[in-house]
Amino acid sequence: MEARLTAETFTRLLNCFDADRERAGEKYEDLRRILIRFFEWRGAPYPEEHADEAINRVARRLDEGVEIKNLAAYSYEVARLVFLETTKGDDSKNLSLESVKLAPVAVDNREELAERELRLQCLEDCLQYLPEQSSELIVEYYRSEKRGQVERRRALAERFGVRRDALANRVQRLRDKLEHCVSNCLRKKATI
Q: Domain check: are 77 and 112 in the same one?
């Protein structure tokens, strides 16, 4: 991971979110939460650190004078690259299989399973709020079979009459809606 941001760089980043400092801070926190979820849902270790790294890289690009038209989309793409780096990584950054086996389990498995069940239930509930076509699209797009994924997504793009990049953008917007809905659902269930 790279060095922390300077105050000037961070201020420049906040100004890209909004001219009003308070709203900029809220938008920053929203983006950070989305990126943390991005890493959590992919099973990345240290999701908060990876989210911060992605945002820091975006801020440094702004500092270098790069014009970013869609800050959220750009940040998401940087997060995707950070995630790919974590899955590649060099051997010095990765834990050995033996050390993982010997490490004590930090979370009670029953709690973890209950949390996953709750997330899954919220996701299923949120999928029902989407129009049927949108729900089918996102489920089909993220179907877990790796084999044939490119061909399946190409066929989806043809079925919807859009280019593959436009399809990916549409799916990302749907995913953002779902993530927001799931977060709200989890928050509501946590207060019950």
A: no
